[in-house]
Specification:
The complex is a heterodimer of chains A (124) and B (883). Chain A is of the alpha/beta class and 124 residues long. Chain A is 43% helix and 15% strand. The radius of gyration of chain A is 14 Å and the shape is globular. A 5-stranded parallel β-sheet of chain B has the order 3-10-4-5-6. A 5-stranded parallel β-sheet of chain B has the order 20-19-18-24-35, with helices on one face. In chain B, α7 packs across α20, α13 (480-492) crosses α14 and α13 (480-492) packs parallel to α20 (783-802). Classes of the chains: A alpha/beta (124), B alpha/beta (883). Chains A and B meet through β1, α1 and α2 of A and α12, α22 and α23 of B.
Chain lengths: 124, 883
């Protein structure tokens, strides 16, 4: 479809969102991500049965942690998309980019002085 | 050659012959080199570094004994030289669509720069003229089926390609975007890309001063226009080549009136001579997915006829023993950057990216290729891996979904474990989606390559275990597609179980009486059902409902409730074919359901079958096309209704030649040879009148008298007529498969049709291995097309079952027993129930059963589970290197 979306996302592939680890989500913020999007299959349609449900729980847990440490849970989002929803994916990337732009650089990035432009990271 | 007058030499010693100018010399040399006959100067022998040229070779006749022959010589494009009014041979800026493809191509004459031939100037305005050589009584009367779609594609790509606002206009008669999701592409071209569509057939192209071209055309209301263009593209059709004609004659297969190999809709890939099959454009004009489908169908037909001699004359590849890569060996990474023609190289600065890749740690070698996936690059890559002693390979190109298997094969050929490979997707994730931001796209590509290199450095070689395959097939759906898939699999020698949710077999086929060719569908279906039911290898379960599905490729288990008693049955099988079909849309519009003479196509077919004498007394019938298709609710085209309308119009005319039959349409999509029937209908006096979706026809009744009002596009004003019947060409809708899709975990599009693994290259596979797709469940299609796709799915499924040397992916979870606390989290988490606490009181994961999703690894509180190939540090490496 070649739908255009902002060039500030980097995709990291995992076999299933079930493999998206709390550790890796936190690590992304620790190293300087301004936002992270987790994209998994539709609920009920996980190729491995329930990996996306586990991922959803972890994302919610990490959001709480981010709120507590002052990074802000709204910088992390999870979406359930099917492979036929490329249009929605592009839309999500645009939305999140706008949102992160509004929020400004992540406090961690400000503190560590890594002043590269906003970079969101997507995990599928 | 210029020469001086001989008198000139009276006073001096000047040469009379002045020699060639550079331009003349080049032209003369080109004339010589293109004269077609080798002059045996032997310069090529000296120039070919591979030493591949041997002038002493003689033609020899070889005899090969085979059990079947598949004809697939393809097509040639129509030569527009014959169309004198287009001046193709004299006007350099009139090009064919294939030439325009070359202009857009990175390996084309202008290096992928969009310029016109005459002066290499960037065109500001380009026109496409459709139906050149097609739908034309002077040349070919059939429709070439593919030109509408490729013209739209060329216009969209040209617009994307041009770094300035490019105007594009497509001049057409009917826009025939009838394939799966094609209508959506057409709409996007119109609404989002701003491609202009003009309904007019162009008679001639006139040259203007300054190499521009003028087109004169009349719009639908008859107003004449003149418009100037910088470049005109002729959308040339497909035709049979002389070579293919001779081949058909040599093999003794019958051809149709257009010289294509003649086939029956009920045997879509069988030539008239037994054992000779046909696929692709040799059978009729068709696009890539249809050709791929038919190719698999032909392979399926051959597999069915030669199933018992499978593997008897097979050569197996001898791969070198893989090199032993020790953990302490320093990584030596080779990075191959693909230009993908202009797909990547046109957006991303590839030389800069390559130079950057060279600077990354552990990178020992970098090169860029025009196409990294081409055959010669694979050979080259194998050599470089050996020469440079590489132990990891990174390819920066497209998606691993389509191309990782290919590159992994190359690693195996080079003696490297296939898991020592990583792809950076700088096309689908970068150049395609950031087309207008060259610098940012290049920066992103650098990041993606750096991430890939970081992960590659940590990759480990993995061993794969053999996969056991249950040699049984399950086909879901007992319509024409499912029956054919089951029959083909059974004929191939595989035990097959066919499930049908209704009490009787046949599906929608039971509601169609005749094909447009006049063949009796019920006679065919009865014979087909009889063969399936009587087949020793096939078991049929009717009134069967799928309620459970588990397992993985080669080892599925399906739970079914069978019969009125709903008794439960568990079926173990190795492959699944999904053929759940579609149904006719039940109209809500045009008084349907309120007046008995407002009927759908299938209802008309039934009426004509049972009450033909009553129908013969009708004076006037109006058919309305695109009912429930190409609208907001269902934006897609249903493909089959235009030919359906023509078929029934011809049947009505046959019953009563004096009957007025009016077809109200938006675009008549009688593609391929169906165009012949459209022409026949016009010859027989069937009236065709076009309507705009903004002004649809009105169907009213007054005292049970039906009448139809529509805007006549010639008169430009409304016409009202009393009619005996209104036939609604109701489109095809996918059957309700929500639950089945969820059980099998297979994706569906917005219309409920299943999504294949790749729209062009894998039209009958699902992305999940071991599951295949055919028939109307994929998208609306004609009976012959459904049968071809069913045979294709059976061929793919059969090939999977027959390949007994498959292995299980090495991507599985492993527990570090020394650190496991046996907390049972993994045991509870695993969706497949694989981890178990062993005798040593630690968790153990059976590799043969592990699916490699990694859910346990991420839940494990002690982090003692690692998924091979996706180990924590391999993922972390990508994150850390980003910032």
């Amino acid at each position: 479809m070649r739908l255009q979306y902002p060039p500030n996302v980097r995709i990291i592939e995992v076999p299933c969102t079930g493999k998206v680890d709390v550790m890796h989500l936190l690590m992304a913020f620790e190293y300087g991500a301004d936002g992270v999007i987790v994209v998994g299959c539709m609920e009920g349609d996980c190729h491995y049965s329930a990996g996306n449900l586990y991922a959803r729980k972890r994302v919610n847990r990490v959001k709480e942690i981010l709120d507590k440490v002052g990074v802000g849970g709204e910088r992390l989002a999870m979406y359930n998309l099917s492979s036929g929803m490329g249009g929605r994916f592009a839309e999500i990337v645009r939305e999140i980019t706008e949102k992160v732009m509004e929020l400004g650089p992540s406090p961690i990035r400000v503190a560590t002085g890594k002043a590269t432009g906003p970079i969101a990271e997507v995990t599928t | 050659m210029a020469a001086l007058p001989p008198e000139h030499t009276c006073a001096c010693f000047d040469e009379i012959a002045q020699g060639y100018t550079e331009d003349q010399a080049r032209r003369e040399a080109a004339r010589c080199l293109n004269c077609g006959v080798c002059s045996e100067c032997m310069q090529c022998v000296a120039a070919c570094q591979a030493g591949a040229i041997d002038h002493t070779m003689q033609a020899e006749t070889k005899e090969v004994r085979v059990g079947a022959v598949i004809l697939s010589p393809g097509f040639q494009t129509f030569s527009p030289v014959k169309c004198e009014t287009y001046h193709y041979s004299s006007l350099p800026n009139v090009v064919t669509s294939l030439e325009f493809e070359r202009i857009l191509s990175a390996s084309g004459p202008f290096g992928g720069h969009l310029v016109r031939p005459s002066d290499h100037a960037e065109p500001k305005k380009i026109a496409w003229l459709q139906c050149v050589g097609s739908r034309d009584v002077k040349y070919h009367t059939y429709c070439s089926s593919v030109c509408c779609m490729y013209a739209i594609k060329e216009a969209v790509i040209a617009k994307e390609h041009a770094p300035y606002p490019l105007e594009t206009a497509i001049f057409f008669m009917d826009m025939r975007t009838f394939g799966k999701d094609f209508e959506l592409y057409y709409n996007r071209a119109k609404d989002e890309h701003g491609v202009r569509f003009v309904r007019s057939r162009i008679h001639s192209i006139d040259p203007l001063p300054g190499d521009n071209l003028q087109i004169r055309y009349a719009d639908e209301s008859g107003v004449e226009h003149r418009e100037d263009f910088d470049l005109v593209v002729l959308s040339v059709g497909m035709e049979v080549s002389q070579g293919a004609r001779e081949l058909n004659a040599t093999l003794g297969v019958d051809t149709n009136g257009h010289d294509f190999v003649a086939t029956s809709p009920f045997a879509p890939v069988s030539g008239s001579r037994e054992g000779v099959y046909v696929c692709g454009a040799m059978q009729g004009p068709k696009d890539i997915p249809e050709s791929v489908m038919q190719a698999s169908a032909a392979a399926g037909a051959v597999s069915a006829s030669l199933g018992d001699v499978r593997w008897t004359e097979t050569k197996t590849r001898q791969a070198p023993t893989p090199k032993d890569i020790k953990p302490e060996d320093a990584p030596r990474i080779g990075v191959f950057v693909c230009n993908c023609g202009i797909n990547i190289g046109g957006i991303i600065d590839v030389p800069e990216l390559s130079a950057y890749a060279k600077s990354l740690p552990n990178v020992a070698y970098v090169e860029d290729n025009l196409f990294t996936c081409s055959q010669d690059t694979q050979v080259n890559m194998t050599r470089i891996i050996e020469e440079q002693n590489l132990n990891r390979v990174v390819v920066a190109a497209c998606t691993p979904i389509t191309h990782e298997p290919l590159f992994r094969e190359t690693l195996i050929d080079a003696g490297l474990n296939k898991y020592l490979f990583e792809m950076a997707n700088i096309r689908n994730q970068d150049s395609w989606v950031h087309m207008k931001e060259h610098d940012k796209a290049t920066d992103k590509a650098k990041d993606l390559v750096r991430m890939a290199v970081a992960r590659a450095s940590l990759l480990k070689p993995l061993k794969e275990k053999p996969l056991t395959i249950n040699q049984r097939a399950l086909v879901i759906g007992g319509g024409i597609a499912g029956l054919n898939a089951a029959l083909n699999l059974g004929d191939q020698g595989f035990e097959t179980i066919l499930l049908e949710k209704e009490p009787q077999l046949g599906g929608m086929g039971r509601r169609v009486h005749q094909t447009i060719e006049g063949l009796d569908v019920q006679v065919y279906l009865d014979k087909l059902v009889e063969r399936v039911k009587g087949h020793a290898k096939i078991q049929v379960l009717t009134s069967a409902l799928v309620v459970g599905f588990s397992g993985y490729k080669g080892n599925f288990t399906t739970e079914v409730l069978v019969g009125p008693g709903m008794y439960e049955r568990k079926i173990d099988h190795g492959v699944t074919v999904v053929a759940t079909g579609a149904h006719e849309y039940r109209p809500k519009e045009y008084l349907y359901g309120e007046h008995e003479r407002v009927m759908t196509q299938l209802e008309l077919g039934n009426y004509l079958h049972g009450w033909s004498s009553a129908a013969a007394r009708w004076n006037r019938v109006v058919m309305v096309q695109c009912v429930g298709s190409r609208n907001e609710e269902n934006p897609n085209c249903s493909r089959i209704c235009c030919q359906g309308a023509v078929k029934y119009a011809l049947q009505l005319k046959d019953l009563n030649p004096d009957m007025d039959v009016v077809i109200l349409y938006r675009d008549m999509r009688t593609y391929g040879f169906l165009e012949d029937y459209y022409r026949e209908a016009r010859d027989q006096g069937v009236l065709f009148s076009r309507f705009d979706p903004e002004h649809p026809p009105q169907v009213t009744e007054d005292n049970r008298q039906l009448s139809v009002t529509f805007v006549d596009h010639v008169l430009g004003r409304p016409v009202t007529m009393d009619v005996d019947a209104v036939v609604l060409s109701a489109g095809a809708r996918a059957n309700d498969t929500e639950e089945l899709a969820s059980l099998l975990k297979i994706p569906r599009n917005a219309g409920g049709f299943f999504i294949e693994a790749h729209a062009k290259l894998r039209p009958v596979d699902f992305a999940s291995e071991g599951i295949f797709l055919c028939g109307m469940a994929h998208s609306p299609k004609l009976i012959g097309e459904s049968i071809a796709q069913a045979m294709a799915a059976a061929a793919r499924a059969g090939a999977f079952l027959a390949d007994v040397n498959q292995t299980i992916s090495g991507v599985t979870a492993h527990v570090d027993p020394d650190r496991c606390a046996a907390c049972l989290v993994c045991v509870r988490t695993c969706p497949f129930g694989v981890p178990q606490i062993n005798r040593d009181n630690v968790s153990e994961i059976n590799e043969a059963l592990c699916q490699g999703c990694g859910t346990c690894a991420s839940e494990c509180p002690a982090k003692v589970i690692q998924v091979a190939h996706f180990e924590d540090d391999q993922i972390s490496a990508k994150i850390k290197t980003l910032y």
